[in-house]
């Protein structure tokens, strides 16, 4: 059901050579880019008419309008299962606690007497958030995108989710209910690259945004790449991943359950166990069979995901080697199920989020830990962070110098300007003090 990669016996290679030995899903965004390019430009030129046409083509629905009516949001919340509403409210509450603490304050540094640099943090003006609606419905992604944007102080928030045939062309009602709970009333029935293009270019109904965030399929990732530079993005999200670093103290029932929990997202989902215990590896393999058989989405998601090239049990000689492996892998979600798990977790450099010990499974982070589940995939955790309040803020430096403070440093500025053969830079300071200004 899941393959093995045995890295025992020899010294582990370094850097890219080690990464190349580890399992990873194929996710060719560049190839998809060529397919989304004409779609994006069609939306640019035809606006809402193109959105309606693509809803018919890709989603099999006939839309009269793309924006979701306010009454539909209200109805979705009124008809939401009370237990689901309570769970969403708790998820929102916990996310707000964590994300509110992330907001940076303005800070002024006195460089010299009379010379200060202030860094202030300003939210982006308008964002477009994407909530997937393919194999599953993700109201949790609505929470994870909206809460940090709101806590950052973003004034204008729009959200898009694919139209659903069974709901009359509206996004899934649980998505709409989550929007209503969060006070987001600008919602569009648009999916994939079409939604990203709507946000990037704007249409008759939707003003363009400054930034697009949220997970999605390869078409969403390709559209984000296409518009990078025109808009800000969070990340080009690929298939979801879990890696578990475990030793002989780990419970194989827990480890198997956690691997399966990510495999049920998608047939390209990655489930990786890194362990120095052959006994644990064998026990997890035995546990997978009955647990998979007892759940849903077995043939179309879980079995292909576990059997795919992106999933494996990786055997190593020691936890030290295991730490090197998980750092090279840079998982979206990394669980540490070892003795003294907190100490090992503290040494991890590359992961989207780290889950410490047996009582912090990834599923907790997906919904109610308070952390964000929009995280870097495909090894991008070595250079990128998960979504947070900071994602929606821009740092601006404010430079304030008096005449005396500028005079004190002018000779250094002039010297450096001339060293770079940019004499007009120095002349801009000389002019302030009545110096003779040779321009050549």
Description:
It contains 17 helices and 14 strands. It has helices spanning 15-19, 29-46, 48-59, 70-78, 82-100, 139-152, 173-182, 192-201, 218-227, 252-263, 278-293, 298-307, 319-329, 341-346, 362-367, 403-419, 423-430; strands at 4-6, 107-112, 115-123, 126-130, 156-161, 187-189, 211-213, 232-233, 241-246, 270-275, 312-315, 331-337, 351-356, 393-401. Helices cover 44% and strands 17% of the residues. The strands form three sheets. The protein has a six-stranded parallel sheet, sandwiched between helices. It is of the alpha/beta class. 47% of the residues are buried.
- Relative helix content: 40-55%
Instruction: Tell me which oligomeric state these chains represent.
Output: single chain
The count of helical stretches stands at: 17
Largest sheet: 6 strands, parallel
Query: Which residue ranges are poorly predicted, with pLDDT under 50 across at least 5 consecutive positions?
Result: none
Total DSSP E strands: 14
Structural class: alpha/beta
Strand order of the largest sheet: 1-11-10-9-12-13
Features:
single chain; 440 residues; alpha/beta; six-stranded parallel beta sheet; five-stranded parallel beta sheet; 17 helices; 44% helix; globular
């Amino acid at each position: 059901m899941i393959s093995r990669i045995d890295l025992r016996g020899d010294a582990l290679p370094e850097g890219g050579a080690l990464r190349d030995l580890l399992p990873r899903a194929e996710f060719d965004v560049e190839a998809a880019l060529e397919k989304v390019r004409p779609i994006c430009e069609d939306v640019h030129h035809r606006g809402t008419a193109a959105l309606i046409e693509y809803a018919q083509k890709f989603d099999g629905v006939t839309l009269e309008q793309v924006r979701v009516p306010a009454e539909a949001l209200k109805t979705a919340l009124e008809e939401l299962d009370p237990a689901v509403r309570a769970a969403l409210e708790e998820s929102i509450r916990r996310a707000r606690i964590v994300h509110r603490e992330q907001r940076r304050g303005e800070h002024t540094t006195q460089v010299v007497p009379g010379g200060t640099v202030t860094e202030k943090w300003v939210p982006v003006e308008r964002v477009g958030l994407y909530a997937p609606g393919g194999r599953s419905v993700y109201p949790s992604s609505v929470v994870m995108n909206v809460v940090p944007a709101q806590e950052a102080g973003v004034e204008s928030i729009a959200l898009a989710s694919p139209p659903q045939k069974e709901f009359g062309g509206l996004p899934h009602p649980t998505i709409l209910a989550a929007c209503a709970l969060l006070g987001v009333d600008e919602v569009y029935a648009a999916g994939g690259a079409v939604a990203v293009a709507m946000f990037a270019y704007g249409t008759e109904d939707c003003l363009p945004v400054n930034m697009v965030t949220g997970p999605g399929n390869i078409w969403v990732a390709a559209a984000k790449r296409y518009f990078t530079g025109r808009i800000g993005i969070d990340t080009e999200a690929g298939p979801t991943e879990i890696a578990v670093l475990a030793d002989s103290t780990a419970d194989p029932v827990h480890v198997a359950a956690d691997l399966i929990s990510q495999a049920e997202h998608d047939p390209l989902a990655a489930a990786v166990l890194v362990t120095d215990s052959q006994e644990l590896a064998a026990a997890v393999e035995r546990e997978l069979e009955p647990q998979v058989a007892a759940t849903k989405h077995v043939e179309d998601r879980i079995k292909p995901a576990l059997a795919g090239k992106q999933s494996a049990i990786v055997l190593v000689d020691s936890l030290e080697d295991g730490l090197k492996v998980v750092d090279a892998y840079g998982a979206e979600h990394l669980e540490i199920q070892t003795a003294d798990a907190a100490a090992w977790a503290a040494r991890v450099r590359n992961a989207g989020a780290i889950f410490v010990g047996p009582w912090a499974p990834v599923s907790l982070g997906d919904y109610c830990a308070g952390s964000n589940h929009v995280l870097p995939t495909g090894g991008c955790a070595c250079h990128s962070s998960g979504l947070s309040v900071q994602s929606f803020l821009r740092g601006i430096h404010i430079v304030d110098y008096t005449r005396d403070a500028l005079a004190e440093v002018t000779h250094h500025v002039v010297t450096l300007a001339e060293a770079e053969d940019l004499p007009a830079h120095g002349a801009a300071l000389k002019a302030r003090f009545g110096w003779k200004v040779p321009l050549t």
